Amino acid sequence: MALSNTLKKVSAKLIKKFGNDLTLTKIIKGVYDPLQGTTVDSIITINTKGTDQDYISEHSQAGDMKITFVSDEKLDAFDKCTYRGTEREIKSIQEVGMENLTVIYQIIVTGDARQQV
Fold first, then answer.
1. Cα–Cα distances in angstroms (integers) from residue 116 to residues 12, 33, 63, 90, in the given order
2. DSSP string, 57-86
3. Which of 12, 29, 52, 78 has CA atoms 20 to 30 A from the CA of 38?
4. Burial, 63: exposed, middle or buried (Cβ in 10 Å; 0-12, 13-18, 19+)?
5. Domains with residue ranges and CATH for the chain
6. Is residue 74 within 8 Å of residue 103, measured between CB atoms?
7. How much of the chain exceeds pLDDT 90, in percent?
8. Whole-angstrom Cα distance, residue 29 to residue 83?
9. Is a pLDDT exceeding 70 seen at residue 28?
């Protein structure tokens, strides 16, 4: 079910105003430099705001979260995010809706329960 244009616009505005800080991180593996003996990775970060809810499915583990956020950039795959002061792995990312140039996304991330073990 697609979101109506009015709901997309209101959702984006409320998430930006009341959401928690969210930093997405994408690591692009660099080319091996034989002179240095290492690879130089590129890191792309995007800072935005997001809201969360518990995520429960047959494939989830205790504490996994679904985070809804907005971005003015088109996103594909990101590796990690920092949300509520904790670095988390991103399991999946999905585009939910678009209003003008702002896109609403949902990501599934590892939750706090794993951090406490």
1. 32, 38, 10, 18
2. -TT--TT-EEEEEEESS------EEEETTE
3. 78
4. middle
5. 5-115 (2.40.10)
6. yes
7. 10
8. 23
9. yes
